[in-house]
């Protein structure tokens, strides 16, 4: 089958259909197109059901719930905490409007839990739609289906979508943008794809700050390939990309005002950047040593995929097609940029899995192209062309039968497995070239399974036990990402906890006046059980340090210095609450209301207490 991948040019190429299906009847062709579009639109739901994807992920940190608060009631955050947050730029989460605006719209229309899944469905379509179209134009429909499976079976992607931390949005936008930049098309339509890429990059940048170096690295890679292959109109195209980002930013200003209740998200982001760039802050979030890295095996996946990609595209005497080259170079520059920022700068792009997950925009697209290139001889065969998609489906399903990967680091097993992935890619390429169809199909299928399986095992392998590592931050490097249960796992308990956490703002109610701070008092030793709940009101900054009912001297000093008007007391049992209330006597407590929130097996008892010493609404409160 002739395909765009056989042409070195980036644009001006049409995509012929396989000979057997060329020039069908117009009515049949229209129906086939509609069915294909419907299949792509439903592919996230089908993949979630077939692969038994975990629909919500656990939160190892309170940060996702801190974004949930902005989704539910952003103005209440500003009303309660704007003054006290000012010196620490803690309102910076409110600047991530590329994620918050669509999430809030989904919440307003569908409610908390349904809105969560509606928005994830949109993110999935943004990711898989352009990937499908890119692979389809390059290799055919079967390759497009394979590309969808690469994205939907990635434990990193599934986990990123599973919380309200905005890495999932940044990843989806960046993945869609990369596919748009690489899209084979005519010169007349290239500007439309560039504009689409610019829009997605703009949304990614305003979803999370780590998307700035991600987008910059992608554009650097794109520019490098264009300088070598197609310089004509490059400056105008880059101007169009930048212009689309500017237009998105300008349009987000009134959108933020209408949806979020505030418009100046740019200053919030800038203040957060300046605050976090201080040496005193970088030391709190970025490890000074690299010694943690050899224990984190999923960081071997990007170089392993890039190695497999290189094996797949190297051709004797033939130039690598420009769309393929674009994907490889952009992914390589992304990986290099993240490595430099982590190990030669002060940004935790790799040690924090909430940050490193965004790198999988390039990893997924490079893996899809690598598999497609390795299977090139199969695309002309009516049945064999579906082998890569079958492999991408079979490997996750096989893993789900017994998802027990032992913990190991880079040495020796991680490096051996990464090398095995690259060797398997070489074997797949060689096997697909065998003249006997059955032999080629069987050999390529087994080698592709080994290639994909090795990257999956590297992704889900737990972090092994290790001694205390000097110069590292345990909260970053020793917080294992929940990748192992993303395929075949259950998100039911996390959905129940999310349902309860998102019910707390309605129970607390809006602030009666500006500066009416709310503090929390909860059993901190059971942090894993309450991380969503405590994150709703910024745990670590708005919490007492002890467990109820033990009101320590430090707690009393904190209450006197911050003087919150309300105290939210919550736990799995209310047995200690009456004693806790009496120990607050010096602050003239009043029990405002109580609740018992339940969702499935999860329950949360909560009391809202007003502290009369600190509750001082002005006469013009409102």
Describe this entry's structure for a reader:
The protein has 26 helices and four strands. The model is unreliable at 1-21 (pLDDT under 50). The chain folds into two domains: 4-50 and 89-289 and 305-335 and 345-387, no CATH class; 492-611, D-Maltodextrin-Binding Protein, domain 2, CATH 3.40.190. It has a four-stranded mixed sheet with strand order 1-2-4-3. The longest helix has 28 residues, at 112-139. By secondary structure, it is mostly helical. The protein is globular and about 85 Å long. It has helices spanning 26-50, 63-72, 74-85, 97-110, 112-139, 141-152, 155-161, 167-182, 187-205, 211-229, 234-259, 265-276, 279-285, 301-313, 322-343, 353-356, 360-374, 387-401, 410-432, 437-460, 474-477, 492-501, 504-508, 527-535, 553-562, 577-582; strands spanning 518-521, 566-571, 589-599, 602-611. Helix 5 packs parallel to helix 8 (167-182).
Key phrases:
single chain; 622 residues; mainly alpha; 2 domains; D-Maltodextrin-Binding Protein, domain 2
């Amino acid at each position: 089958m002739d395909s765009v991948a056989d042409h070195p040019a980036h644009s001006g190429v049409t995509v012929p259909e396989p000979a057997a299906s060329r020039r069908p009847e117009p009515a049949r062709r229209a129906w086939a197109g509609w069915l294909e579009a419907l299949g792509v639109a439903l592919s996230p739901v089908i993949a979630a059901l077939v692969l038994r994807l975990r629909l919500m992920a656990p939160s190892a940190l309170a940060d996702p719930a801190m974004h949930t608060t902005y989704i539910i009631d952003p103005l209440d955050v500003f009303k309660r905490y704007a003054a006290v947050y000012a010196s620490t730029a803690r309102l910076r989460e409110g600047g991530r409007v590329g994620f918050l605006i669509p999430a809030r719209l989904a919440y307003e229309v569908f409610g908390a839990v349904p809105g969560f899944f509606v928005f994830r469905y949109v993110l999935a379509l943004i990711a898989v739609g352009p990937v499908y179209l890119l692979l389809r134009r390059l290799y055919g429909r079967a390759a497009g289906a394979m590309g969808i499976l690469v994205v939907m079976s990635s434990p990193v992607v599934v986990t990123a979508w599973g919380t309200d931390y905005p890495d999932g949005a940044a990843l989806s936008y960046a993945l869609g943008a990369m596919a748009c930049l690489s899209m084979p098309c005519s010169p007349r339509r290239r500007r439309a794809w560039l504009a689409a890429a610019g829009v997605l990059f703009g949304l990614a940048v305003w979803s999370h700050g780590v998307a700035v170096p991600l987008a910059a690295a992608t554009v650097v890679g794109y520019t490098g390939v264009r300088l070598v292959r197609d310089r004509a109109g490059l400056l105008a195209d880059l101007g169009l990309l930048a212009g689309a980002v500017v237009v998105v930013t300008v349009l987000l200003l009134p959108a933020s005002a209408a949806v979020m209740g505030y418009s100046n998200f740019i200053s919030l982001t800038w203040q957060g950047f300046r605050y976090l760039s201080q040496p005193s802050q970088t030391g709190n979030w970025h490890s000074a040593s690299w010694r943690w890295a050899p224990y984190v095996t999923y960081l071997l996946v990007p170089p392993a995929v890039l190695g497999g990609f290189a094996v797949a595209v190297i051709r004797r005497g033939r130039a690598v097609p420009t769309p393929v080259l674009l994907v490889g170079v952009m992914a390589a520059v992304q990986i290099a940029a993240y490595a430099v920022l982590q190990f030669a700068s002060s940004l935790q792009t790799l040690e924090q899995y909430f940050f490193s997950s965004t790198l999988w925009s390039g990893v997924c697209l490079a893996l899809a192209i690598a598999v497609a290139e390795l299977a090139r001889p199969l695309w002309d065969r009516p049945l064999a062309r579906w082998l890569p998609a079958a492999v991408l489906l079979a490997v996750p399903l096989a893993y789900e039968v017994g998802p027990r990967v032992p913990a190991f680091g880079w040495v020796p097993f991680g490096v051996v497995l990464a090398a095995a992935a690259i060797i398997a890619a070489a074997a797949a390429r060689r096997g697909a070239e065998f003249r006997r169809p059955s032999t080629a199909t069987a050999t390529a299928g087994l080698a592709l399974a080994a290639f994909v399986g090795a990257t999956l095992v590297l992704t889900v392998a737990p972090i092994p036990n290790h001694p205390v590592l000097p110069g590292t931050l345990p909260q970053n490097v020793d917080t294992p990402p929940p990748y192992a249960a993303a395929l075949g796992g259950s998100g039911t308990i996390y959905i129940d906890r999310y349902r309860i956490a998102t019910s707390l703002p309605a129970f607390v109610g809006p602030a009666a006046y500006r500066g009416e701070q709310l503090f929390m008092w909860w059993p901190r030793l059971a942090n894993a059980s309450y991380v969503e709940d405590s994150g709703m009101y910024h745990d670590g900054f708005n919490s007492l340090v002890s467990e109820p009912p033990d009101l320590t001297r430090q707690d009393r000093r904190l209450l006197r210095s911050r003087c919150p008007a309300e105290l939210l007391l919550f736990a799995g049992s209310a047995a200690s609450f009456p004693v806790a209330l009496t120990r607050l006597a010096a602050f003239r407590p009043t029990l405002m209301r109580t609740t018992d929130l339940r969702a499935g097996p999860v329950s949360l008892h909560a009391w809202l207490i007003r502290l009369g010493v600190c509750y001082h609404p002005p006469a013009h409160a409102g």
